[in-house]
Queue: 2 jobs
Job 1
Amino acid sequence: MPPPPQPTHHLRIAILECDTGLPKALAKYKRYAAISSALLEAGAQAAGLRPGESEISLWDVVNDVGTFPSLEDVDGVFLTGSKFDSFATDPWTNALVDFTKQILAQTRVKLVGVCFGHQIIGRAMGARVGRNDSQGWEVSVTDVDLTAEGKSFFEGRDKLSLYQMHKDIVFDYPAGVQPLGSTAQCLVQGMFVPGRVITVQGHPEFTEEILSEILEVRHEQGVFGDEIYREAMARVGRKHDGLMVGKRFIEFLLDR
């Protein structure tokens, strides 16, 4: 009997965990980074990878300040979302920005970022990040209008429907970045540098359950008033493109 076929790829991804998560989500996923890991695992399957052809490691960059993977041991680095400020200057955020700059200074390891991670990458590339006080919160399933580059990257679609949960933004595109899309509230919804960087402001890793818990907690805390809460909850169950984005992340890391 012939031996089983050997994997043709071995994609190594390090997820930098930038948040701690909420109780219901943690009860299911055990830690915040596992939400992003679930997206990448589903994306790898959708991209046709077999078991054993991808390997994901999780790194708690909030509590283990300055502890990062060796770039020799990974092919891609994924920065998660976070409730924290991407423009903060505390030790762990500064260390994360510095590490992101290290990745940008080389050409083999690729960068992927969502929401806070998207903003950190923008900051490391020299863009201004901060509160979007003029437009306020962007939440729940939202349509992103794609640019020509965005349509090409995201399988020819005109729009991308993603969960949003942010009041902070990247204000402008860094030099050398291809714009992927925009909304009425946020000009910089995605950044692309072929073979180097892919980011989205949205949360492709979120589910209806995860986003609902965040909305409920922030409504109880008074972060969201009744009107924005009700309007966001009315859209939380809409179809979104998270899995397709996860698949495209994996294909980007594989140079497809």
Note: The first strand starts at residue 11 and ends at 17.
Job 2
Amino acid sequence: MSYPISPALRHCSKLNIPDLPLSSLSPSASAPTPTAPIEEEEAAPAAAEKTLFTLTLKSFDAAAKPKVIKEIKQMLGLSLVESKKFVESAPKMMKEGVPKEESEKIVEAMKALGAVVVSD
């Protein structure tokens, strides 16, 4: 049985899909199991040192509230109203997945303004 071909597709002769060997799709082509335990042992020490942190605004000095709002506005890219609501709802998570160096800089900058930020 033949299906009619759309006039728009008559000029197309190839779908441009690369041919894949069927052996790469089979489940038996997975990596050998003896190497897996070795990789897990090497990965264990690397997991011990945390590299990404979550920053949480715990509290702030009432006198420093305008400065903290401005810094949060600049850091998180929020509007002034959103930043004010964010600061007033402390404790609240600021950022997630922040590298160690950047998190230390943010904690120090916020501490200098009178805010308490904790990196977990």
Note: The chain has four helices and three strands.
